[in-house]
Amino acid sequence: MDRVAKRAGTNKNAIYRRWPSRAALAVAAYRELNVADQPLPDTGTLRGDALELLRRANRSWTSPAGQLRRSLFAGVAHDPELLGLIQERANDAGSAMWLTVVARAVARREVPAESLHARAATVAIVLLRNEYVTRGPGTVPDDVLVEIVDDVYLPLLRGRGVTARDAAAAPAPRPRSARRPKKES
What we know:
Helix content: 55-70%
Structural class: mainly alpha
Order of helices and strands: HHHHHHHHHHH
Largest sheet: none
Radius of gyration: 20 Å
Number of strands: 0
Mean pLDDT: 81
Distance between the termini: 45 Å
């Protein structure tokens, strides 16, 4: 808190009046770093919107602000209060944003209305987050983002609400190697 006060050009008492603990200050900083400053993509397709959201997140998570977020997450192991507050803020994985994108896709009849479920809508960003956990802090290659969207996200959302009978009657999807490459958005 001393360093924060010094950098802000004030004293610790002023900092503590606004943020009663280090954890509260860290969560406020985390919230500020996560403010969306760009409008939601509206490419006209769920695929294009999902890829753009993943690409933005990928750029953000490797930026200087992303490095700050990772440092903040690294410190939570030693501060249970901070961990709880960050989990409270981070668990929705930006579901409102993803639900808006999926709602547009439902309106365009790209996916069924059953796709409007927070856990399903946020699968793509959760998989990207997992890439950072398993690969480390470097940028995730674009072909992995395309794979997340084409091979997991879109099939998952398109299959929501499909019964076992419907699935048995549908033709089997072609293997990825037999598909034509899709144009990038």
